[in-house]
Automatic annotation (TrEMBL), chains A, B:
GO BP, one annotated term: glutathione metabolic process
Domain named GST C-terminal: residues: 92-212
Record-given protein name: glutathione transferase
Species whose genome carries this gene: Penicillium desertorum
PANTHER family in alphabetical order: GLUTATHIONE S-TRANSFERASE RHO
Catalytic activity: RX + glutathione = an S-substituted glutathione + a halide anion + H(+)
Family: Belongs to the GST superfamily. Phi family.
EC number from the UniProt entry: 2.5.1.18
Domain of life, source organism: Eukaryota
PROSITE patterns, per database record: GST_CTER, GST_NTER
Classification via InterPro entries: Glutathione-S-Trfase_C-like, Glutathione-S-Trfase_C_sf, Glutathione_S-Trfase, Glutathione_S-Trfase_N, GST_C, Thioredoxin-like_sf
């Protein structure tokens, strides 16, 4: 039975999973798009799967998991040896430690700020609300400082977790892409190593297919 | 040669690592406290170890890693079979998927908000600055909604990643403790299952020793 993904093609978090499936060469998955406008993600049936009422959710037989990054990690383990290798082997504990360092940094030094910026500039607009200038300014300031550091890091290593493409690059993709849609693309293109990373990563077939 | 931890006893992120070392029964580590007031964490020597200029950093022979959660994961692997078991075995890919789901949720549904609240209420005060009311209000609102969900979750499972104590509980410890110091302890104690979880977790010797 194929794995079932419940999400939305254009949602940032679903995109991480769709790109991972493509990188692993998994084509026979069941993709259920949800009607968020109708509140399907807050229905009792859906909240049973994810108590936070958010997409995506993956179901594989008796396993139901949420949180996009956890789903991507699971797919890497389930389809180990198939498609691209996106994580070090757990038996290599030092390589795993380095991977985990960069995976954690994506959440604390990138996602924490950019997801707030996206919420302020995009989601609130969809809800007919103005952005809160103080929140936007604080997050842009923090993110800019962190992207300066990432630009230095990417001058030393080709990808976000070292010299090989990995899940950490995929974790960065949706919101990096959205910076351009938010009119903040210069945060990427003004930094030469970050710009080169994005050109390299966004040329991959998996991103051409799923990154929107 | 013992592992070397550079950090600060009273820093939230260092605390995660110190508690993990205690849970693993590791007593022979070299703990280097840093003088943050003197800016040691922004020195060229330290930034070479962590380009973000933040503590803690762990050194083990030729391995240098930052990001507290990544360090805790590494210690669990290095000292596997010693002290408490804090993560499922990587060979159990379904149990690992569930662990990763809860580990990711700690960052996206707890840390993202509480670290901002702590910065606003505590760090800015140390810097002689007022908190920004809009940022504080937004984060308290989001965190409250998420803690309601955690209260439901902890009515179904004893710990943050299932029925066993794990690294995910340790990840929650420093900022849960700080809610009380920030005058926001009712966010924990008003929620019965969350309150019970905190009573259970904070009674462990590792927290009695290192949670401040």
């Amino acid at each position: 039975m194929p794995v079932r993904l419940t999400g939305l093609k254009h949602s940032t978090c679903s995109m991480r999973v769709l790109i991972t499936l493509e990188e692993k060469g998994v084509n026979d998955f069941d993709f259920q798009e949800i009607d968020m406008a109708a509140g399907e993600h807050k229905s009792p049936e859906f909240v049973e799967k994810n108590p936070f009422g958010q997409i995506p959710v993956l179901e594989d037989g008796d396993l139901t998991i949420f949180e996009s990054r956890a789903i991507c990690r699971y797919l890497e383990s389930k389809y180990k040896g198939q498609g691209a290798t996106l994580m070090p082997s757990p038996s290599d504990i030092k390589a795993t430690a380095v991977f985990e360092q960069w995976a954690s940094a994506e959440l604390t030094h990138f996602d924490a700020m950019i997801s707030s910026i996206y919420y302020q500039t995009t989601i609130r607009k969809l809800q007919g609300l103005e952005s809160v200038p103080e929140i936007l300014a604080e997050n842009i300031k923090s993110l800019s400082a962190n992207l300066d550091v990432y630009d230095t890091i990417l001058g030393r290593q080709k990808y976000m977790a070292g010299d090989e493409f990995s899940l950490v690059d995929i974790f960065f993709v949706p919101y990096t892409n959205r910076t351009f849609k938010m009119g903040l693309g210069n945060m990427v293109t003004d930094r030469p190593h970050l710009k080169m990373w994005w050109e390299t990563v966004s040329s991959r077939p998996s991103l051409k297919k799923w990154s929107t």
